[in-house]
Write a structure and sequence with these properties.
279 residues; alpha/beta; sialyltransferase cstii, chain A; 7-stranded mixed β-sheet; binds cytidine-5'-monophosphate-5-N-acetylneuraminic acid
């Protein structure tokens, strides 16, 4: 039944998708002194040593966030996760203004147009970056040929802002997530990594007791508007092209504990943190 399906997926994710960041202990990173470059505190302890955030919000960048009036509700959570270059200034009523963590794909630090070193979007918060390494996770090859070079700006920023929590997700974590999506999907999905959305949701399930995800599964406000902050229309932003977005979303929906009403009106899905259940 539905409850069993939910439990099955949750347990599989808890057991197989272990949150891992580059800690500098593996080659080629160990030989390059990355054990001294990465933050001293592990990402899992962002919420405090041995404790979790009680309640968290994950705010998708979807156009359907516009006119949602969800800002107050989003800011009421203990921690708020946002994506890439999605702004809050000017959109507070709909998306809130609190940001605890930003998950960024490697385009953000690598491409000059995002102003990674100067923009206030990336200051005073925790940063978690990722880059789609090949499935085989050959770290040598990945270090030499990342999709976008996030390693150079990472080193630079760690040097300039040593106290800012800034992590790079281990590619094996990304592909463990992909394996669970494929393992629970009838069709063969494309061998591309999950979206920052799915990765961020799983990150927060490790850091929080309860995760509230907004407009990842579209509400009745569903629109072709790609982002709430840009006048660009493309249905693929919501349903996927490169990322296995449709399949990720179906999986998340199967884990939802919130009501259908919450989904329709707020685009809200609620998920339990991994620390709150045993398998
Ligand atoms: O658009 P993006 O995603 O930054 O959105 C963040 C997450 O919000 C969810 N989303 C977004 C729009 C929408 N209409 N529906 C949604 O559900 C998704 O879960 C998405 O992951 C990414 O995942 O990193 C992505 O990044 C952009 C882009 O690189 C960044 O915005 C930086 O400019 C990618 N776009 C392109 O490469 C052109 C996008 O494919 C994925």
């Amino acid at each position: 039944g539905r409850a069993q399906d939910k439990r099955g997926i949750l347990c599989e994710l808890k057991q197989r998708a272990r949150l891992t960041t580059l800690d500098g202990t593996e080659e080629p990173f160990s030989g390059l002194g990355w054990d001294r470059l990465v933050p001293l505190r592990p990402l899992e302890e962002l919420s405090g040593e041995g404790s979790k955030f009680r309640s968290c919000a994950v705010v998708s960048s979807a156009g359907a966030m516009l006119h949602s009036s969800l800002g107050k509700e989003i800011d009421s959570h203990d921690a708020v996760l946002r994506f890439n270059s999605a702004p809050t200034v000017g959109y507070e009523d709909d998306v809130g203004n609190k940001t605890t963590i930003r998950i960024i794909n490697s385009q953000i630090p690598a491409l000059p147009r995002y102003g990674f070193n100067t923009s206030s979007l990336y200051q005073g918060i925790s940063l978690v970056a990722w880059d789609p390494a090949p499935y085989s996770v050959d770290l040598f090859r990945w270090y030499r040929y990342p999709d976008y070079d996030l390693f150079t700006p990472y080193k630079e920023r760690r040097r300039l802002h040593p106290t800012q929590p800034f992590y790079i997700l281990h590619p094996k974590f990304i592909w463990q997530l992909w394996d669970v999506i494929q393992g629970n999907t009838q069709e063969n999905i494309q061998p591309n990594p999950p979206s920052s959305g799915f990765i961020g949701i799983l990150l927060m399930m490790s850091l929080c007791e309860e995760v509230h995800v907004y407009e990842y599964i579209p509400s009745l406000r569903q629109t072709d508007l790609c982002h709430y902050h840009e006048r660009y229309y493309d249905a693929a932003c919501t349903l996927g092209a490169y990322h296995p977005l449709l399949y990720e979303k179906l999986l998340v929906q199967r884990m939802n504990t919130a009501s259908l009403q919450d989904l329709k009106t707020r685009g809200k899905v609620t998920l339990p943190g991994f620390s709150t259940f045993d398998c």
